[in-house]
Specification:
Helix 4 packs antiparallel against helix 5, helix 5 crosses helix 6 and helix 5 runs antiparallel to helix 10. A hairpin with a 5-residue loop joins strand 1 and strand 2. This protein is 70% helix and 1% strand. It is mainly alpha-helical.
């Protein structure tokens, strides 16, 4: 059992921990997650003006010139706090996902420090790629569709709180979508599913992907297609990860397959 910073430890798959040990490890990982969020919030609050300007850039040009509307004296303050908090969540989420992965996976599979660091890099890279995809590709298309729909019938003004809630939710959802291969790998490492099962259920996967794309912020047909395309690619990538790094299925492990030999009856007499 190796110690990591802040008292976190790498638990080997063959190591037996008591309930108290598991609860202590969980407590430490929760503390790390909370401290990460606090640090990320402090950073985003200092950079709040730059973040607001950055989130306003996907707006169509005419709405960017008009600016965003607030309807109460307290709304600007609380809107900025919400933007900073959600941006901090975006920054902290890769750390949270890693803490979850590091807590669950070693209990069922051997996990070296090098593999754990590779997971950190993979989780962070995929999440940032998803946020970038949502910001540069999906968000401008969704805003153009919704704000341009019926523009000859209505005079539109955008409320700041609702706009930033829409954009941050969209970026968070896009980042989480790109974590699909990591989730597939995690289930395969635990032995719950196999790569063959992922391959055989591709039709179900397409239906689920379409449903998720429809439920995400946006919901217009073009945004759905833009979200579905990378999700399908990521599903194939997840199948490859599961086939290369997947663990032994639980139904094939010795604890499931080994049979206890029958007891020899004592000799008569």
């Amino acid at each position: 059992m190796a110690r990591l910073p802040l008292g976190l430890r790498t638990v080997q798959s063959d190591e037996r921990l008591s309930v108290v040990d598991h609860l202590e490890e969980l407590r430490r990982r929760i503390v790390v997650s909370v401290l990460t969020l606090v640090a990320a919030f402090a950073i985003t609050f200092v950079l709040r003006d730059h973040i607001i300007d950055l989130l306003k850039q996907p707006l169509p040009q005419q709405f960017e010139r008009q600016g965003l509307v607030t309807l109460s004296p307290t709304e600007p303050f609380f809107t900025i706090l919400k933007v900073c908090l959600w941006t901090a969540v975006l920054l902290a989420l890769p750390v949270w996902l890693y803490q979850l992965y590091a807590f669950v996976i070693p209990a069922v599979a051997d996990q070296s420090r090098r593999k754990m660091l590779a997971v950190v890099a993979g989780v962070s890279s995929l999440f940032l790629a998803g946020v970038a995809f949502g910001y540069f590709v999906v968000l401008p298309v969704a805003l153009q569709f919704f704000l341009g729909f019926g523009d000859d019938l209505f005079t539109s003004q955008i409320r700041a709180g609702e706009y930033f809630g829409f954009t941050t939710t969209m970026l968070l959802a896009a980042g989480l979508i790109f974590e699909v291969p990591i989730a597939m790998l995690a289930f395969a490492r635990m032995g719950v599913v196999t790569a063959d099962m992922y391959r055989k259920q591709w039709r179900v996967a397409i239906v689920v992907i379409a449903a998720v794309a429809a439920l995400l912020p946006g919901g217009d047909p073009l945004s759905m297609l833009l979200l579905m395309a990378p999700m399908l690619v990521l599903y194939v990538f997840g199948i490859w990860l599961a086939s290369v790094f997947g663990g032994t299925p639980v139904w094939e492990r010795s604890t499931w397959t080994d049979e206890t030999p029958p007891e020899t009856p004592p000799p008569a007499g």
